[in-house]
Design goal:
This protein has 89 residues and is of the alpha+beta class. It contains four helices and five strands. It has a single domain, classed as Arc Repressor Mutant, subunit A (Orthogonal Bundle), CATH 1.10.10. The strands form two sheets. The chain has a three-stranded antiparallel beta sheet with strand order 3-5-4.
Length: 89
Amino acid sequence: MVTANEARGAFTKSAVTGSSDGVLSTPKRLLSKRELAVVLNVSERTIDNWLAQKKIPRLRLSARLTRFNLPKVEAALARYEVREIGGRR
């Protein structure tokens, strides 16, 4: 089983490398449905529901192989975030 820390590892570990021009680059890593569910702290069924509702983007490599780009998924979900207007009195 993949833990949340392992799934986020590609983005947070010391895998960040520097180039000669001083710009840091992070290696891109595509996540499976299970890894994405762990990172987002939701069930795999929720991922399936979001896909059916076309709320999150996916990279469909074949009929049985789907991968997700975490930054793009998080950006897509941010559009559905409910923000509080005003406050309690």
